Amino acid sequence: MNQNSSAPKLLDQVRDAVRTLHYSIRTEQAYVNWIRQFILFHNKRHPRDMGEDEIQSFLTYLAARRNVSASTQNQALAAILFLYKQVLKADLDWLDQFQRAKKPKRLPVVFTRHEIARLLSCLNGQNLLMANLLYGSGLRLMECLRLRVADIDFDQSQLFVREGKGQKDRVTVLPQKLKDPLRLQLAQVRELHQRDLADGYGAVYLPQALARKYPHGERDWRWQYVFSAAKRSADPRSGQVRRHHQDASVLQRAVKQAVRAADIHKAGSCHTLRHSFATHLLESGTDIRTIQELLGHQDISTTMIYTHVINRGAQGVVSPIDQM
Q1: Residues near 139 by Cβ (< 8 Å), separated by ≥ 6?
Q2: Which of 301, 300, 322, 298 is nearest to 311 (CA)?
Q3: Would residue 113 show up in a list of annotated catalytic residues for this protein?
Q4: Least crowded by CB within 10 Å, which of 90, 245, 279, 319?
Q5: pLDDT at 133
Q6: Residue 114 known to be catalytic
Q7: Alpha carbon 209 to its chain's center
Q8: How far is CA 229 from CA 139, 251, 306, in A?
Q9: Which one is catalytic: 15, 148, 245, 297?
Q10: Interacting residues of 218 by C-beta distance below 8 A, sequence separation 6+
Q11: Are 231 and 192 in contact (CB under 8 A)?
Q12: What contacts 302, CB < 8 A, 6 or more positions away?
């Protein structure tokens, strides 16, 4: 393997390529991890010296030996294809011939309204407010954590979701019941932000487009996270010390504990609150296309799955025994 010793290491080249395309830090970490595993699986051979057979054997190993899910296997394939196309600039016909693993179609887990009430009663503080937003506004977990002060429109009762799944913006509902708790949360975060500024910090991460448009915006109050982390930390890319948003694991752990405490016998998670938002809107007569827009689904067929879990059972059919 003849490589220029002054050239960046392969994984550093991957990181540079990911950042050039403005992918998220989570995508960067996942891609680097899968590419490292791919190389180690083949005894540290350089990817330039490997090809279609080596990729296929790694994917087979993930499915047959490690029993990973279809989505995990597809993520590994996406990382490897990214390496060959974006980093190694390989122009090979076989790169586009890999078949993605087929994801099994499963009905979403949904909480009843009574279960939602019991679960929320087992939460408090910031975790309660975030869980209320997942259920009350249909947010994904990371969409909630990435909310910024400027994304809340109290007058119009709406939330702006920036760069959601698929890098798409959308607008969703801000429940009236959450306005006062949100105002209190913002007051607490503002006080924390003022202390950070007084200590010489107060900066927050801004996406590339915002950073260019507002070169001094990183310390502006309106761009601060609504759910700030308790401690400042160094940005893994720039090394700059900032106050990031709350870590996802905090709410995930709190919701799992609340599910148990509420004696709910379902495999519920943070995402179950979003599923419940859609299902309960459908049950109350909200138009399916309105729900599609609120959830940010690209295809109506994705939203239609909630028609299978509303209160009349499978396919909305009433059993003949109930008609006797």
Answers
A1: 133, 147, 159, 161, 172, 274
A2: 322
A3: no
A4: 319
A5: 97
A6: no
A7: 20
A8: 19, 12, 34
A9: 297
A10: 203, 204, 205, 206, 211, 242
A11: no
A12: 292
Spot the catalytic one: 15, 140, 275, 280: 140
Which residue in 165, 170, 219, 232 is the catalytic one?
165
165 is known as an active-site residue: yes
Two structure tokens written together for 59: 């994917």
Q: Which amino acid is at 4?
A: N
Query: Which candidate in 45, 118, 232, 271 is catalytic?
Result: 271
Average pLDDT, the chain: 89
DSSP state of 228: B
Give the model's pLDDT for residue 115.
96
pLDDT at residue 237 in the model: 79
The dihedral region occupied by 22, where left means phi > 0, alpha psi between -120 and 50, and beta the remainder, is left
146, 193, 274, 280: the active-site residue: 274
Question: What is the Cα–Cα distance from 246 to 144, expressed in whole angstroms?
Answer: 10
Q: Tell me whether strands 152-153 and 158-161 are parallel, antiparallel or unpaired.
A: antiparallel
Look at residue 243 and give its three-state secondary structure: coil
* Tokens at 103, concatenated: 């994801």
Q: At what angle do helices 179-198 and 125-137 cross, to 10 degrees?
A: 130
CA-based nearest residue to 135, from 119, 150, 122? 119
Query: pLDDT below 70 — which residues of the chain?
Result: 1-7, 311-324
pLDDT in tens, 124-140: 999 999 999 999 999 99
Residue 260 falls in the annotated catalytic set: no
Cα distance between residue 27 and residue 142, in whole Å: 13
Distance CA 20, CA 28 (A): 11
Q: List residues bridging with 172 in a β-sheet.
A: 159
Q: What is the model's pLDDT at position 320?
A: 64
Which DSSP letter does residue 155 get?
T
